[in-house]
Design goal:
With 96 residues, this protein is an all-beta fold. The chain has one domain. It contains no helices and 9 strands. The protein has a 4-stranded antiparallel β-sheet with strand order 1-2-5-6, with no helix packed on it. A 3-stranded antiparallel β-sheet has the order 7-8-9, with no helix packed on it. A two-stranded antiparallel ribbon has the order 3-4. It is globular, with a radius of gyration of 13 Å. The mean pLDDT is 84.
Length: 96
């Protein structure tokens, strides 16, 4: 990644590592990055609907063709704890 960050949510799908949100120098991030360990390449993979850090993460449907659905549960927005579940679709590298 091109910046330092902490407290991100991490999800693994099809051998790639997705890093979502987290605490950055300017506050809480809403960026999702994808890291490919086979190439050591990091790319931007999208944005969350709102900034979130310190969230728990899970993925459903990781074995399905096309990817899976990621869930970020709880966390905080930089000012207060959040009682939310954020969902977003992860597209596997094979179908991207």
């Amino acid at each position: 990644m091109r910046r330092s960050a902490a407290c991100q949510a991490v999800i693994i799908l099809d051998g790639r590592i997705y890093v979502a949100g987290g605490a950055v120098a300017h506050g809480i991030s809403q960026t999702v990055f994808r890291f490919d360990p086979s190439t050591f390449r990091v790319t931007a993979a999208g944005r969350l609907p709102a900034p979130v850090g310190y969230a728990a993460a899970a993925v459903e449907g990781a074995g399905e063709v096309g990817g899976g659905v990621a869930y970020l549960i709880g966390g905080e927005d930089g000012a207060r704890p959040m009682a939310t579940v954020t969902t977003f679709r992860l597209v596997s590298a094979a179908s991207a």
